[in-house]
Design a protein that fits this description.
By secondary structure, the chain is mainly alpha-helical. The chain contains 5 helices and 3 strands, in the order ααααββαβ.
């Protein structure tokens, strides 16, 4: 039995997710042909459609990986190339309708769905981790950032947290002179 599309398989890219859904549909059609009487021509039609769609999908997916800076893009491209070359080899070795149906099932289940469920999920996992890492780095930078405030007796640096509170209306008074401290923007 083939798995069906679930939102948990999403890579959070509308175009790639739509293509993955379509590949699940094509895989189901191909897999279901295995137990039906169909002509060699019908199988070739499904196989050709599958093959053409895969090439378009792989190209789009590689562009997406490039756009997000996926560090294992070259490895992933090699997997795509291997799948395409293997499909070409399989198609060229088919001698009869039963061979075609069997190979179509292999392509549908093993290569495509396993590829999506294993390899493509690595892309999404990396994307999520990189977003979390970037958010943590930004938070760390903010916590180190200092802002200059002055009163008549001295200047001092405050954290981004205190700076934000002052921007929102909080008043901080100098303990020595009793004046409200005032932001002194950096004039770089």
């Amino acid at each position: 039995m083939l798995p069906v599309w679930e939102d948990s398989y999403s890579v959070n890219n509308e175009n790639i997710d739509a293509q993955h859904k379509k590949l699940f549909e094509l895989a189901t059609i191909a897999y279901n042909l295995e137990n039906k009487y169909v002509s060699k021509q019908q199988i070739k039609y499904v196989l050709n459609g599958f093959f053409e769609y895969i090439k378009i999908h792989f190209s789009d997916e590689e562009e997406y990986m490039l756009s997000i800076g996926y560090p294992k893009l070259d490895e992933h491209k090699k997997i795509h190339n291997y799948i395409i070359q293997s499909m070409v080899r399989l198609i060229s070795k088919i001698h009869n309708t039963n061979d075609m149906k069997e190979q179509l099932g292999v392509i549908a289940k093993k290569w495509l769905l396993e590829h999506i469920l294993q390899e493509d999920m690595k892309i999404e996992s990396w994307r999520r981790k990189s977003i979390l890492k970037a958010a943590k780095e930004l938070e760390a930078r903010k916590s180190k950032e200092k802002f200059c405030y002055v009163c008549s007796c001295k200047s001092r640096f405050v954290t981004a947290e205190i700076h934000e509170k002052i921007k929102c209306g909080a008043k901080f008074v100098c303990k020595k002179c009793g004046e409200v401290i005032v932001y002194m923007p950096n004039k770089n």
